[in-house]
Design a protein that fits this description.
This protein is about 30% helix and about 35% strand. It has about 190 residues and is an alpha/beta fold. The strands form 2 sheets. Strands 1-10-9-8-4-5-7-6 form an 8-stranded mixed β-sheet, with helices on both faces. Strand 4, helix 4 and strand 5 form a beta-alpha-beta unit.
Length: about 190
């Protein structure tokens, strides 16, 4: 199992700290991250961002920072499940629509699906039919980038639909797991890393 990270080991990656208040807000985000050992299976250290989502100031900071990365995207794509929450908020701030990428069996109509490996098993993601137009510019949002399997599967689904993936934005990157490498050449943007 990975070692539990202390608050001081989490690093701010993206953005300029404009003032002491912004610095304090990101300190608050870091302090709200929670490590859950042996979840969802023994030996896995789950990084829980739920307390960040529950805190209005922290959630607004994360949303605004990620929305600043959306650029010229036509739509934000949120990956199930916490990526839905963050992606929807980011889309509102960025002025785009939002499309959810779902786990298998949750959609009435599916454009395509991908099965991929996780650090603790396998999973399948599905893209809803008729939601991402061929040639659409998309920005993918998720909560945590770990091994990169989920993000790579999401980006592959979007490529299958003919979309142009402009980048991936995440709240937290677990650098030691090398997920970023699986996504090249897609630009990866993280707010915090550990």
């Amino acid at each position: 199992m990975s070692e539990l990270a202390s608050e001081s080991s989490v690093q701010r990656v993206h953005g300029d700290i404009r003032d002491a208040e912004a610095e304090g807000t990101f300190d608050r985000v870091v302090g709200l991250l929670r490590d859950v050992p042996d979840y969802p299976s023994p030996g896995v250290l789950f990084r829980d961002i739920t307390p960040v989502l529950a805190d209005a100031e922290a959630f607004a900071t994360v949303t605004t920072e990620l929305a600043s990365l959306v650029g010229e995207a036509d739509v934000v794509v949120g990956v199930e499940a916490r990526g839905f929450l963050i992606g929807a908020a980011v889309a509102i701030v960025a002025g785009t629509g939002v499309v959810p990428i779902r786990k298998a069996g949750k959609l009435p109509r599916v454009a395509s699906s991908r099965t991929y490996d996780l650090e603790y098993g396998t999973a399948t993601l599905e893209l809803p039919a008729d939601t991402v137009a061929r040639g659409a510019r998309v920005f993918v949002v998720d909560d945590v980038l770990a091994t990169g399997g989920t993000a790579a599967a999401a980006c592959a689904l979007l490529a299958d639909a003919g979309a142009d993936v402009l980048g991936l934005g995440v709240l937290l990157e677990l650098v030691a797991l090398g997920g970023r490498d699986r996504l090249a050449p897609i630009p990866v943007h993280t707010l915090l890393s550990v």
